[in-house]
Amino acid sequence: MATVGLLYVGAVLFINGMMLLGKIDARAAAIFNLFVGAMQVVIPTVLIITANNRADVILGASGLFLFGFTYLYVGIGLLGGFDTTGVGYFSLFVAIMALGFSYANFRIANDKPFGVIWLYWAFLWLLFFLLLGLKREHLTVYTGWVTAIQGWVTAAIPAFLLLTGYWQNWNQNLLAILLAVFGVVVFGGLWVLTRRQRALPGGTGRAGGETAAAH
Fold first, then answer.
1. What residue ranges define each of the domains in the chain, with the CATH number in brackets?
2. CB count in 10 Å sphere of residue 143
3. Where are the membrane-spanning stretches (predicted)?
4. Terminal CA-CA length for the chain
5. N or C: which end of the chain has fewer CB within 10 A?
């Protein structure tokens, strides 16, 4: 059940990344945020109710609320035209908690690939805090690309591989290393590229005038 939810987390991150890049209208993206946000609240609630006090199930389900509340917060904020500061500072909370869930996956669940993926999410939600909470609008384009890419790399592709059984066929240590290297190379390269674009005459780091876009 949680894996199905992860698939649609990939979809909403991709859509929101495109929104930040000025490709999708903010109010149109808000509707899908509400759909996925509701899903990511209902699924962990069901998992916890049916967990029979299994600590591992409850731990895994509890992390899903971080995303569910984020997408609901974003969807309502975009539709209502609210200031982004609140969701920005909530993103800081999510980023910090993601570090804890990363540690839990490495040390408790012995799931190294998802330990790395939680680090991805900690980085992404930190960017949301900087962009939406601190209004660092020059990060809009960079955050948009990171969001869209993470939608595929951390959610849609892993979810599909888990659903089809192929994820388990990979050497988990190797998979974790590949994910870590990919993140450093791609997001580091994107930072250099977008920084150069901002340095060009007329470069602002904003896409399509979207500054209130969310994740």
1. 2-199 (1.25.40.600)
2. 29
3. 6-24, 31-51, 57-79, 86-104, 116-134, 146-167, 173-193
4. 22
5. N
